[in-house]
Every structure is written in structure tokens, then in C-alpha cells.
Amino acid sequence: MKANIAAVGLAHPFEVGFDNAENLLNQTVDTLVGMGVDCSNAGVVMHDLETVKKAADALKQMDADVLLICIATWSEDHHLLDLLSYIDKPVILRAFPAFDTGSLCCAHQIGAVFTDIGKTYEFVYGNADDAKCATKTKQIATAYSLANCMGKVRIGAIGGRVKGMTEIAYDEFSIKQKLGARVVNLDEKEMTEKVAAMSDEDAEALLEEKKEMLKPCKVLSSKESMLESMKYYGAMRALADEYALEALSVKCYTTYMGKICLGYSILAEEGIVASCEGDVTNALTMKLLYELSEKPVNNTDLLYLDEKANTILFAHCGSSGFSIAEGDIELAPVRLAETGVCSRFLMKSGTVTAVNICGHGEQFRMAIMKGEAIPCGMEFPGNPVKIRFDKSVEDINAEIMANGIGHHWMVGYGDYVEELKNFCKIKGIRCYVI
């Protein structure tokens, strides 16, 4: 996901630094663009109503997620109030160090005005070419972009949730309010009827269609199970297309164990996230991490602490996308039921962010952990990932229990702690960085 920013300047002709305002605007934008941020420059320094209108016209054409206001000098604060009457979007106030321009005190002044009128804002302070400031700006903007993206997401909940997991009962109102997504509730018959209508020949054709994707896989499951799995994949793909879904969650345990797992892996490579056991909220957690990392996300349980190595083993049955695999991939029967097709493989090493979302109403909460995925063996048949943390795993365990954090953890590649913290701030979600 690329942050989408539109930048504009603000300055007063009477103040020191007015002549440098356009340069500060350009330099700030160039620094962001140099970091790969999608930052458009309105090319306007606002200082009167005419320039405010000119800026508004330019900004409207850019359709950005957030406005970056580069405050070069002290300025009359009503210019921003006028701008927001023409284009009201989230705002980052950007101030620059100088003892004689009044940039910083202008930002403070505007912050007070915005607070009084109930307009939320973000603030970044530092030199125009400061990489840390550019990184912070990018993280804030990415969170707003993520919020906009999630507001358009539709998730298909097929069959409800697994009995016995009250913790994962999903609150459609909280999901819409806090995450922005809309839940599309589907009877599991909509899936099973499509499966029943598909012939073995149709399943063979789907298998041939996915031949290149499955080429690296060693098949240990029966041909019958492979064809059945392709029928479930075809049914889920058809439902995703029919209802315009970007995420799915199937009540798999125990009826559909091993039947949908391979389909989940294929869907992950096609950009549709899917979570196990009917956990709708964590399917949306996967969507958050997918948008941030642009890679498949690993759906896991937190299983085992190794206090001596300071690692935690996370794993589930095996339904992750193939592109995050390290080494061999086996298509094998699911554990316990010993039937169907799961995608078993070890996970790549690298920095990861593990996230859990659970709760209802005011208790709706997100927990975030950052660590390093390290090499491990097939310690649990599925997609195990062993994560080493800087923080003591005993303390992590205690914090999880103290704050009532759930047992499903979605693991994405990359460090997205700041982006997710900002997302929680924007959406009013209780956030725990563990």
C-alpha cells in the first residue's frame, strides 16, 4: 500500500521566510517522493483567499488520503479554515525549525484552533529534508490510506463461527465502526451447493489452470482429496466474485477441515485473504496486514514459549500463501482429521508483525507485536513460524493474559507497528503494543 498525500504551503508575505516557502514545500515533497511515497505537490503557498481557492482546486484533483500543510512562517490561521470549507480531509501540520519565521508557533496556534472546532490533526516537526520526519509522515499517511481502504472492504462470513470459540464471536457494528468493513453473512449452503454442482472434470480443469502455481508442491494427499479441494476453491472464488469480497472466513472446524485449506492458499496468491474457524475479525486483521505488506499473511495460533531462546512458536493447520514459504511445500492431509489437503511449509525468515483483534463495543481492541521470524523445523504440521522477540516472552505472555488478548495471531512480513498504532488512533480502537 502506498500512502497518498497532497502537499500545499502556508506562509505570510510580511514574515521572515516567505520567500523560502515554496522551496520548503518542494523540498518536503521531494524528500517524501524519494522514499517512494505518492506525494503530489499543489504548487501553491496560501496567503490570501485567492491562493486558498487556487490550492483547493488543485488539491481536489489529487484525491489524496491526507493533506500535508507545510507551514513556512507564521500565518493567519483562518486560511486553513477557509481551505477546509472547500476540501475537508485529514491534515498533517508540518512545521520547520527556525528562530525567526514563526513556523512552529503558527503550528501551535492552528493546533489550538483545530482542537476547539473538533478537527483532528497530526503534527510533524523538523527540517524539510529530514528522513525521520519523512518516515513519520509516511506512517501517518499510510494509516489514513489504510482506513480509507478498509472502509470499502466486504468480507464474506460463511456459516458463522465455530462453536466453543465465544472469543471470536464477531460484532458487525464494531467491525463497521472501528475497521470500516462490511460483513456479508452467507449460509454455508451457498458454498456447498456450488461444490456439489461442480463435476470432477471441472475440478480437473481448475487444477490444470493452477498448474504453474502448484508446480513447486509435493502432493501427498489423494487425487480424490485434491479434486474436492479444488471444488471448494472454485466455490469460494465464485462467491468472492459474486459478492465482491476481498476477504473470507469459513466455519471450517471440524466439518470443512482440510477441504478449504488449499483453496485459502490459492486465494491468498490471488489477493483474497481468508481466515480459519469463522474468525471474521481476524480475517480483517489479515486484510490490514496484507494491504501494508502486499504479501500473503499467516493465520496462526500462539502455541509455545521457549523461555531460554526467547522465542514463541505460532502455527495453524496450513492455509497460507505459497509465496511466503521457505523451502519445500507439501500438499498433505490436515492434522487430526487426516484427510483433505493442507499447504504445509516453513515460513521465510525476516522481520514480522503479529496482530490480534478481538472484543466488542468499547472493548474492541488490537494487540501488536514485532519480532524476527527465525528458521525452525516442522514443529507443528502446517505453517509454523518461530518468532524471536526483544522483550521477554514471559512478559509478553503475562501482558496477553492481563489484557484479555485472543489466541489467533495474524503474522505479516515487515514492521508496521507505527502504522497500526496510527490506524487505531484514527479509528478509536484500543491498542496494546506488547
How helix-rich are the residues, as a percent range? Answer: 25-40%
Number of structurally distinct domains: 2
Top CATH class of the largest domain: Alpha Beta
Main sheet attributes: strand count, strand direction, barrel closure: 6 strands, antiparallel, barrel
| Number of separate helices | 14
Total strands:
19
Measured distance between first and last alpha carbons: 24 Å
Described by the principal axes of the CA atoms, the overall outline is elongated
Low-confidence stretches: none
Provide mean pLDDT, rounded.
Answer: 97
Strand coverage percent: 25-35%
Would you tell me which CATH topology of the largest domain applies?
L-fucose Isomerase, Chain A, domain 3
Q: Kindly report the spatial arrangement of strands forming the biggest sheet.
A: 11-12-17-16-15-18
The class by helix and strand makeup works out as alpha/beta
Radius of gyration: 25 Å
CATH architecture classification name of the largest domain: Alpha-Beta Barrel
How does the SSE layout of this entry go?
Layout: E1 4-10, H1 21-34, E2 38-46, H2 49-60, E3 66-71, H3 78-86, E4 91-95, H4 103-117, E5 122-125, H5 131-150, E6 154-158, H6 172-179, E7 182-186, H7 188-197, H8 200-209, H9 211-214, E8 217-219, H10 223-243, E9 247-250, H11 261-269, E10 273-275, H12 280-293, E11 298-306, E12 311-315, E13 325-332, E14 342-347, E15 350-358, E16 365-374, E17 385-388, H13 393-402, E18 408-413, H14 417-427, E19 430-433
Parallel strand pairs: 1-2, 1-3, 3-4, 4-5, 6-7, 6-9, 8-13, 9-10, 16-19
Antiparallel strand pairs: 11-12, 11-18, 12-17, 13-14, 15-16, 15-18, 16-17
